[in-house]
Amino acid sequence: MSDKVEFELVSPEKLLVSQPVTMVVVPGAEGTLGVLPGHAPMIVTVKPGVIDIYGNDMATVTQRIFVAGGFCEITADRVTVLAEEAADLEALRRQDKETLEKQIADLAEDLEDAKTEVERHAVEAKLVVAQAKLELHGQSVH
């Protein structure tokens, strides 16, 4: 068995990461999921949060990437995340905090004005992502 797992992160725009890693930690809908080589196969829903990539050892996070949600397919030697939206955490931290706060306020108003369940659900999903971005805004990158 290899000591690495092949990790791929794909957004609608492009392939963001494709590299062998020691471990990947994914924000799953049922809880945070650490994936090592030899992991049991599964498919999980990804919630808004941060993917931590451990490149060479399990003590050092080499990259942190915010994802807005999506799906993760895991096999014994591969982890593939299909993200709805993804951004390097450092890039996210450079966003203006006031802009994120205004976006949340606007979405809260849109939620109150939603006329159908479908519309309400779509606005709630956007609101969860915006709130996750704001929560992560002040955290350290590593």
For the structure shown, list the relevant keywords.
142 residues, alpha+beta, ATP Synthase, domain 1, five-stranded mixed sheet, five-stranded antiparallel sheet, 30% helix
Reading off the top of the CATH hierarchy, the class of the largest domain is best stated as Mainly Beta
CATH superfamily of the largest domain: F0F1 ATP synthase delta/epsilon subunit, N-terminal
**Helix-strand pattern, N to C?**
EEEEEEEEEEHHH
Reported CATH architecture of the largest domain: Sandwich
Low-confidence segments, ≥5 residues, pLDDT <50? none
Task: Characterize the largest beta sheet: strand count, sense, and whether it forms a barrel.
Answer: 5 strands, mixed
Q: Helicity range of the residues?
A: 25-40%
**How many angstroms separate the termini?**
29 Å
What is the spatial order of strands in the main beta sheet?
Answer: 2-1-9-8-5
The number of helical runs is: 3
Count of DSSP E strands? 10
Which secondary-structure class do the elements indicate? Answer: alpha+beta
Estimate what percentage of residues fall within beta strands. Answer: 35-45%
* CATH level-3 fold name of the largest domain: ATP Synthase, domain 1
> Averaging pLDDT over every residue, what do you get?
88
- Shape category: globular
Rg over alpha carbons: 16 Å
In short:
With 142 residues, this protein is an alpha+beta fold.
Structural summary, described in words:
By secondary structure, the chain is α+β, with helices and mostly antiparallel strands. It has two domains: 5-89, Sandwich (ATP Synthase, domain 1), CATH 2.60.15.10; 91-137. It is 30% helix and 38% strand. It has three helices and ten strands, in the order ββββββββββααα. The chain has helices at 89-93, 97-113, 117-137; strands at 5-10, 15-21, 23-28, 31-35, 42-46, 49-54, 63-67, 70-74, 78-83, 86-88. The strands form two sheets. A five-stranded mixed beta sheet has the order 2-1-9-8-5, with no helix packed on it. It has a five-stranded antiparallel beta sheet with strand order 4-3-6-7-10. Helix 2 (97-113) runs antiparallel to helix 3. The protein is globular. The two termini are 29 Å apart. The mean pLDDT is 88.
